[in-house]
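Researcher: Quick test of sequence recovery. Tokens follow.
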């Protein structure tokens, strides 16, 4: 006889399950994407950020640095074979040389590994007060993005397992930035990291992940309630469309609403990805979030203006490359 928790866990349909890959697979794809990028006019450098600590789950993050005002119509990830398409979960990042220098004031991307070209990366020096302010802002933004993704999955009953595994270490950074080194959410994140590390051993099941997710989603929401009460996030708009199915608006307390018709996964034979897309078309979420629409911080104001400028630059010059513009880049028109 299954417990109620086990029955609930089995109601989650798991999609995008990781598949085994070797480090050699990663290095071959890195060489392939590097060869494509090196041929581009105006390319200065190619970097890798992040690591490959869990082959088969880790994805590749590649940054292409171009001379200012150079245009590139290449979509390098689309040129890769099936293996490369799996190891990249998104497009390459692309950035102009001057934007790369300026961006270091506003991000904490780390572990820049030069793969090809000249050294273009120079870490910015930041005052301690500004560093704290920026860390709190970034942590709240990424926690909110995680809450939106996990809430959507919870309502649909569909878990994107690789996406979940990829997000979990970033949450640890968010908790660290907010001074949280213990507690229920911290313990749950470490539990999922343990599941991630042991996934290919065959000792971690979908049901175990589903049962973990039941508690995690609830605790993530509770933590966000407390975090947005204690810390202040700045967004220069009162309301915004975050994605096609999710809208954010300013509110005194955190509130999540869903409107539409939800098709549960256990009443249909429709594949998980198709069902997820169908539910996205049939549903809309509204996230009421406590945040400030004005700030005395010149750093945060400049950050949104710069991210908007960088996003628009990429749309014109590097349309097939992601901008290093954080969670809200391109979604907010800052003044």
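Model:
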């Amino acid at each position: 006889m299954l417990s109620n928790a086990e029955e609930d866990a089995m109601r989650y349909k798991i999609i995008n399950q990781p598949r085994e890959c070797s480090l050699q697979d990663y290095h071959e794809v890195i060489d392939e994407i590097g060869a494509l990028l090196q041929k581009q006019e105006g390319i200065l450098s190619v970097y890798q950020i992040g690591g490959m600590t869990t082959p088969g789950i880790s994805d590749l993050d590649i940054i292409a640095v171009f001379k200012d005002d150079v245009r590139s119509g290449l979509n390098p990830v689309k040129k890769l074979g099936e293996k490369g398409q799996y190891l990249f979960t998104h497009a390459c990042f692309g950035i102009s040389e001057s934007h790369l220098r300026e961006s270091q004031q506003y991000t904490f991307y780390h572990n820049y590994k030069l793969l090809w070209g000249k050294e273009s990366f120079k870490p910015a020096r930041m005052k301690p007060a500004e560093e704290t302010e920026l860390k709190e802002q970034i942590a709240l933004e990424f926690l909110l993005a995680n809450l939106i993704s996990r809430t959507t999955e919870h309502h649909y009953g569909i878990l994107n397992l690789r996406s979940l595994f990829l997000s979990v270490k970033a949450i640890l950074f968010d908790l660290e930035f907010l001074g949280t080194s213990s507690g229920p959410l911290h313990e749950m994140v470490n539990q999922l990291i343990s599941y991630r590390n042991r996934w290919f051993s065959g000792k971690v099941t979908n049901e175990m992940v589903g049962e973990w997710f039941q508690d995690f989603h609830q605790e993530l929401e509770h933590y966000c309630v407390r975090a947005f009460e204690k810390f202040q996030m700045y967004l220069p708009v009162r309301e915004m469309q975050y994605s096609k199915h999710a809208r954010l608006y300013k509110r005194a307390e955190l509130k999540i609403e869903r409107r539409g018709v939800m098709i549960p996964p256990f009443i249909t034979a429709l594949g998980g990805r198709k069902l997820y897309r169908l539910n996205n078309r049939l549903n809309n979420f509204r996230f009421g979030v406590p945040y400030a629409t004005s700030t005395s911080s010149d750093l945060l104001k400049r950050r949104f203006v710069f991210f908007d400028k960088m996003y628009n630059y990429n749309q014109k010059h590097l349309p097939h490359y992601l901008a290093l513009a954080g969670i809200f880049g391109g979604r907010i028109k800052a003044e």
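Strands lie at 13-15, 43-49, 61-66, 93-96, 113-117, 158-160, 239-243, 246-250, 255-260, 283-289.
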